[in-house]
Design a protein that fits this description.
- There is one protein chain.
- This protein is α+β, with helices and mostly antiparallel strands and 370 residues long.
- It has 11 helices and 15 strands.
- Strands 1, 2, 3, 4, 5 and 6 form a 6-stranded mixed beta sheet that branches.
C-alpha cells in the first residue's frame, strides 16, 4: 500500500529582466540585483550565497511543516510539481499568489493555502533589492508532490517501534482491565497532599515481542514532580508480561503505547480541588466537542472556563492552543502552546513553534523599509 508523504521542494527565481506598469512603486521585477529571501538567516555573518541557502532551507521547512497532501490526490496516485508565483513586497510581506502549473486533485489550492500562511505566521521577508532600494519582485516556488512507500516502523533512539501493524498491541483482558489494574496499582505520593497536587502524567512504553516493557518517554502535564514520575514509571513497568504484542507479517513486533496516569489527592482537605478539576476536565471535553461540531467560539469559551480555574494545566492549554492554531489565531496559539511546553517539556510543536510565535523576523527586512 502506498502511503503519504514525501514532499520534495525546490526554490528558484527565474525569468528575464522586465517590469510592468509605469509608476516605480507599482513595478514588479522578474529579476533583481539581490533576490528576495525568506527570513531567519539575515543575522548570519557569512556570504550572501550561504544566507540564500539558509533562507531557502527555512522556507522549505515552513512548507514541509504545513503542507497536506490532498486526500483526492493520494487516492488517485497524483504526483508531480506545482509551480506557484507570488510577489514579495517592499514592506516584507507577500501578495498575489498564483499557480502557474498545477497537477490537479487539490494540489494547486493546497499550495496557495500554505503560501498564504506565510503572511499569517508573521514571516518578514528580505525584499528584492535594485540600486540599493527595496522593490516589488516575483518569487517562483516549484513544489514537488511525491507519494512513496513508508516503512512500517520508526526509530526512537536505538529502538525500533512499529507504527503499522496487522494486529494492534493489546493488554490482557482489554484496555478496561488495564485501567482497573492501574487504578489499583497506582499510589498517590503523600508529598502531594500538602498542596493538593492534581493532574496527569503520560508514560509512553515500548512493548517488546517477549512482553518486556521499556519506558520511552514521560510527559508531566501538571509539573507534579519526581515523586509522581517515579510512581508513574513504577506502575507502567509493573505491567511486564501482561501485554499481547502487536504483529506484522505474521510475527510479533515491538510497538508503543501511551499510558495516562491520573493523580488526585485523597486528603479530605483537597476534596474541593478534586471536584473543581473534574468539572474543568468536563468543560475541556465539552469545548472540544463544540469546536468539532463547528461551534468554534463556543468551544473556545468553554475551554477558557476550565483554564481560568487551572491556568497551568498543559493538557488544557494544548487543547485550546490546537483549536486556536486550526483557526489561524497564531498569537493565541503561541501563548497557549509555549506555556504548555514550559510546564510539561513537550517537544511535539518544536519544529513550528517559532513560526507560530512570529519569531521569523529579520533586521535586514526592517532596514529595507526605511
Amino acid at each position: 500500500m502506498r502511503q503519504i508523504i514525501t514532499l520534495f521542494f525546490l526554490v528558484s527565481l527565474f525569468g528575464t529582466s522586465n517590469a510592468f506598469g509605469q509608476e516605480p512603486d507599482t513595478m514588479i521585477y522578474q529579476t533583481v540585483q539581490e533576490p528576495a529571501r525568506f527570513p531567519g538567516c539575515e543575522q548570519l555573518d557569512t556570504t550572501i550565497s550561504f544566507i540564500e541557502q539558509c533562507a531557502n532551507a527555512n522556507l522549505l521547512n515552513f512548507v514541509y511543516s504545513n503542507i497536506r497532501y490532498p486526500q483526492e490526490a493520494i487516492q488517485n496516485n497524483v504526483e508531480g510539481s506545482v509551480v506557484v508565483r507570488f510577489v514579495v513586497e517592499p514592506d516584507s510581506t507577500i501578495s498575489s499568489p498564483e499557480v502557474l502549473r498545477d497537477i490537479g486533485d487539490g494540489c494547486g489550492p493546497e499550495v496557495i493555502r500554505v503560501v498564504n500562511l506565510i503572511n499569517q505566521a508573521g514571516a518578514k521577508w528580505k525584499p528584492g533589492i535594485n540600486d540599493g532600494k527595496p522593490v516589488r519582485s516575483y518569487f517562483t516556488l516549484p513544489i514537488k508532490f511525491k507519494l512513496e512507500e513508508l516503512p512500517p516502523y520508526t526509530m526512537v533512539g536505538r529502538d525500533t517501534v512499529y507504527t503499522r501493524v496487522e494486529t494492534p498491541l493489546d493488554y490482557e483482558g482489554g484496555l478496561e482491565q488495564l485501567n482497573v489494574y492501574l487504578a489499583d496499582r497506582l499510589d498517590y505520593p503523600p508529598s502531594g497532599n500538602d498542596s493538593c497536587m492534581i493532574g496527569n502524567i503520560q508514560v509512553q512504553v515500548l512493548i517488546q515481542p517477549n512482553g518486556d516493557v521499556k519506558v520511552l518517554d514521560i510527559v508531566d502535564f501538571n509539573d507534579l514532580g519526581f515523586d509522581f514520575w517515579y510512581e508513574s514509571i513504577d506502575a507502567a513497568t509493573s505491567t511486564l508480561g501482561k501485554w499481547i504484542p502487536a504483529t506484522f507479517e505474521g510475527r510479533k513486533v515491538p510497538s508503543a503505547f501511551d499510558i495516562t496516569m491520573n493523580f488526585a489527592p485523597d486528603d479530605d482537605a483537597c476534596k474541593m480541588i478534586v471536584d473543581q478539576y473534574k468539572e474543568a476536565t468536563d468543560k475541556i471535553n465539552e469545548g472540544a466537542k463544540l469546536y468539532n461540531e463547528g461551534k468554534q467560539e463556543e468551544g473556545i469559551a468553554k475551554m477558557s472556563e476550565a483554564i481560568e480555574v487551572f491556568p497551568e494545566d498543559a493538557n488544557f492549554l494544548l487543547a485550546r492552543g490546537q483549536a486556536y492554531l486550526d483557526m489561524s489565531s497564531f498569537d493565541e496559539a503561541c501563548s497557549d502552546i509555549s506555556l504548555a511546553r514550559r510546564i510539561s517539556l513537550i517537544k511535539w510543536y518544536d519544529n513550528v513553534l517559532n513560526l507560530i510565535c512570529n519569531k521569523l523576523t529579520t533586521t535586514g527586512g526592517d532596514e529595507a523599509q526605511k
